[in-house]
Design brief:
It contains seven helices and 15 strands. By secondary structure, it is of the alpha/beta class. Helix 2 runs parallel beside helix 3.
């Protein structure tokens, strides 16, 4: 009888890094089947439930749920490898907690070490009962803010699209615009509506990433491609994934003088 192939999932909110890890794993561990890639903690949790993998490679900091939160809720027998871009303090925390980790950018040599450890663990007849304790230790050792969602910041929005209600990741929003009794949510795919007033919404968004540019508009700065000046000297924003431009009122024009 042919031996069952080990199955893994990858969770990372940076698609290129997730695909890179998948490609390196294909070379380092050809027998490993990748059941799917999740873009955030909530997707990762759903993917683990659906696929029942042997291994999960979890980015430590993701929207919705952190990698640590996903690992805590996962079955004890799941082998978890945390993927982190953080500094030596975080690395020391992983080592002291005796949990495996990969530091971004992942090197082939370090990945080979991790694959060897995972193969040895999967050969064990019973799961390691100390994993739960190790996760608790890691939570205590990690520097503040690492491994946790940013407190009080909105990560997901339930919005109406026609007769349907969609769950939209805040990172996918291009901009918000006040619209009578509603707020319009614009993504690269189209427009959705929420009942939350723009002023209330502004208090829930990360001010480093979402800037008010008009009394009726908040833009995702990561979605801004270029700034434009019209003949009257007023500023407009050209977006990366939408065709319209956004007007910037004079009160907020100073935010874009260096762009």
């Amino acid at each position: 009888m042919e031996a069952k192939r080990p199955v893994a999932v990858i969770a990372d909110d940076e698609p290129r890094l997730a695909e890179y890890l998948r490609s390196r794993l294909a070379l380092a561990w050809p027998e490993l089947a990748i059941a799917g890639i999740a873009a955030n903690g909530i997707e990762a949790q759903a993917l683990i439930r659906a696929e029942d993998p042997d291994v999960a490679f979890l980015d430590i900091r993701m929207p919705g749920l952190s990698g640590l939160e996903v690992a805590r809720a996962a079955p004890r027998e799941l082998a978890v490898v945390f993927v982190t871009a953080y500094d030596d303090h975080a690395v020391e925390a992983f080592e002291r907690a005796a949990l495996d980790y990969l530091l971004k950018p992942v090197t082939d040599e370090r990945l080979a070490e991790t694959v060897a450890r995972l193969k040895a663990r999967l050969d064990q007849p019973a799961p390691d009962a100390s994993v739960t304790d190790a996760l608790a230790t890691l939570a205590r050792l990690l520097p503040a803010g690492i491994g946790s969602a940013v407190p009080g910041r909105l990560a997901w929005i339930r919005a109406a699209v026609g007769a349907q209600v969609r769950l939209i990741a805040v990172d996918d929003v291009c901009y918000f615009e006040a619209n009578d009794k509603y707020t319009s949510v614009y993504t690269s795919e189209g427009e959705a509506l929420i009942r939350t007033p723009l002023k209330e919404l502004a208090d829930q968004l990360d001010p480093q990433r979402f800037w008010q540019i008009h009394r009726s508009t908040i833009v995702n700065v990561a979605q801004v491609a270029t700034t434009l000046r019209d003949v009257g000297g007023r500023t407009r924003l050209k977006l990366k994934s939408r065709s319209e431009t956004l007007a910037v009122s004079r009160a907020y024009a100073h935010l874009f003088r260096q762009m």
